[in-house]
Structures are given as structure tokens and as C-alpha cells.
Prior knowledge:
Elements: E1 3-6, E2 9-11, E3 20-22, E4 38-40, E5 43-45, E6 49-51, H1 60-68, E7 72-76, H2 87-96, H3 99-109, H4 116-128, E8 134-137, H5 142-152, E9 156-160, H6 178-184, E10 189-194, H7 197-205, E11 210-213, H8 223-227, H9 233-251, E12 257-260, H10 266-275, E13 279-282, H11 284-287, E14 300-301, E15 313-314, H12 322-327, H13 339-350, H14 355-358, E16 363-365, H15 375-380
Parallel strand pairs: 6-7, 6-13, 7-8, 8-9, 9-10, 10-11, 11-12, 12-13
Antiparallel strand pairs: 1-2, 3-16, 4-5, 14-15
Helix pairs in contact: 1-4, 2-3, 4-5, 7-9, 10-13
Amino acid sequence: xxxxxxxxxxxxxxxxxxxxxxxxxxxxxxxxxxxxxxxxxxxxxxxxxxxxxxxxxxxxxxxxxxxxxxxxxxxxxxxxxxxxxxxxxxxxxxxxxxxxxxxxxxxxxxxxxxxxxxxxxxxxxxxxxxxxxxxxxxxxxxxxxxxxxxxxxxxxxxxxxxxxxxxxxxxxxxxxxxxxxxxxxxxxxxxxxxxxxxxxxxxxxxxxxxxxxxxxxxxxxxxxxxxxxxxxxxxxxxxxxxxxxxxxxxxxxxxxxxxxxxxxxxxxxxxxxxxxxxxxxxxxxxxxxxxxxxxxxxxxxxxxxxxxxxxxxxxxxxxxxxxxxxxxxxxxxxxxxxxxxxxxxxxxxxxxxxxxxxxxxxxxxxxxxxxxxxxxxxxxxxxxxx
Length: 386
């Protein structure tokens, strides 16, 4: 399998969202009657979209609102929310800084120590607001923070880094043992990020409860440019889904996979589910919500596992409320709003009544899908982004 790229070297062809299209089904379903819910360890979530652990996206207020809408949001335990008692004041300083000042300012801001009492406080704020408290850390702090979070009442813990494997070789520090961490936790454990069949299967065998899939595709991720790492998301999701299904046959245990990054529109999200995802994680789309920590500022921030200085700003622009982004009504024509409406309509069009049926949707390789016959649409800037 693969194509020759040189003498004795082959490379596999992989596909991203722009390379494929979904084929309408021979039976269609009323979009209002499809079931888009997903489950993790018996917990049911009405919408299969997770807000990423970005400082410019998730604070306690946003997490509560995301829960009210039926989804979950991941709070970064190593960001400004746990370093500063008044994170809004810090955000104001970052937003008002010039481009030249921003890098130095962010470096100094993230040099402040993480305060364990703030971890407890933020989780308590989310729980008091009626939301599910989902929090994350990098592997180096996972043991300590996972137990702190569980004691504070967290519902789910996430361990996230640029590339995650079940086997990590290191002599200067003790690698994180996912089996041990899972045994010691009474709450679900989500781990990421990975992109291959082998890595996904080995991580599932450690007992983790869900996997984050994606290296390199995120709007704020520089893994491809800096490290040369990355696999297009359709292929990465399909490979991980194959590992999930094999693991299910082997053990009878279903481990959901969550496609993380690379999705800018409802169409991309639909393709992620068709490739095999159980849920998706997005960040920049929510950074444009009025409920995001920036409260309407035109910015977003990198996630802990991305190869950017912590807090690096991404220009995203304000779109509207979280409810409008998820459920509409849309007042843009580029697919960045009413994401749930897009998913429901697509599932109805391909004849999928559930997410599991959506995973069986026929896909075709169609690299011209975004440009074919679009000359007038492009000229009028309709449905092409602004």
C-alpha cells in the first residue's frame, strides 16, 4: 500500500476534510428525528461536540453554558484560570497589548505558578452552575492534577499532549503510566492526541475511556510547520475508528474516539463523523462566541498540546452567541454557525438515524468538491467565508 516517493521509499496517501465528500443515502430521515447523542462511561451527552481546552475559549462560565446547551467544555488546568484569581484582568492585558508586546507579555503571564486552590475553585464554580466539570493537564502533571480534580468533584479528566503513546521511553523522568492512572481514578479518563491505528489500539488496551484524535490540523497548531508531524483528519479518524472496532471485538469494551481539530465548518464536522468519530472537539469556532473568556474580543489561544507559546493569540473574530454557533439561526453563509443543524441535516440526507449509522456513510474522494462549479459563488463571496 502506498506510492513510491523515491528509491526504496513509499508513502501512504492520506485524506483530509477538503479531499472527500459524503454520498446521499438511498433513504432519507427527518433531521428532527435523528439521535445525535453520545455516551462516555454511562454519561449521556445530548450534542457530540466538545469545546477544546483553550484559554481563549473555556472558563467556568463558558463550561456551564456549554453544559446547558447539551455539550461539554474542557477547562485547561495549566492556563490563566488556575494561575490568577482574576483571569479577566489578565485577558484584558493580553488583548490590549500590541503584537510586538504580546509574546513577552504572554511568557511572563504563564510564568506565574499554578495555584492548587484555584483548581478546586474553578471546578466548584462549574459544578455550582450545573455543568459537568471536565478538566485537562499535560502528562507531566497528570498524576497530581487528576487526583486534585477528582477530590474537587470533577466529572472527567483529560490528559493531552502533542503526541501521546502508551509506551514512552525516558530516563530523566518517570513516564506517565496510563494503566496506573486509570486504576487510581473513579472518573472517566480521556487521553490524546494520537493518529495511528497502532497507537490508538495500545492506548485503548491501557484502559482509558476515550481517545482524542489529531496531530497537526488545528487552527493554532504548528506541529506540521515546526516538527513536520501530522496526519490529515479523515485518515487519522478512520484508522483510530478501525482500532476502536477491533478493540470492541476483542474485549467487548467500546472506547469512543473524538476527532480533535481541523474543523472549520458544519461540513467538516459531518465528515469527521462519517470517518468514524463518536464526538468532535473544536476550539477556534467557540473562541468567537460572546460567552468565551474574551467576551467578544477578536482572539483565541493555543491549547496545551500545541507547539506555540502558551497563550499565543489567534485572530478569530466575533460571530455570535454560543447558542447561535451551535443551533442558529446563522447570519453567516460559510458554515461556521448552526453546527448542530448542519449535522442533523446531513445525517437526514445520508439516511443515518444515529451517530453509529453516520459512521457507515459512503465517502468518495472528491478534491474538487469545494471549487467545482463555484465560479459565480466565489465572485459573489457567497458561502466562501469573508
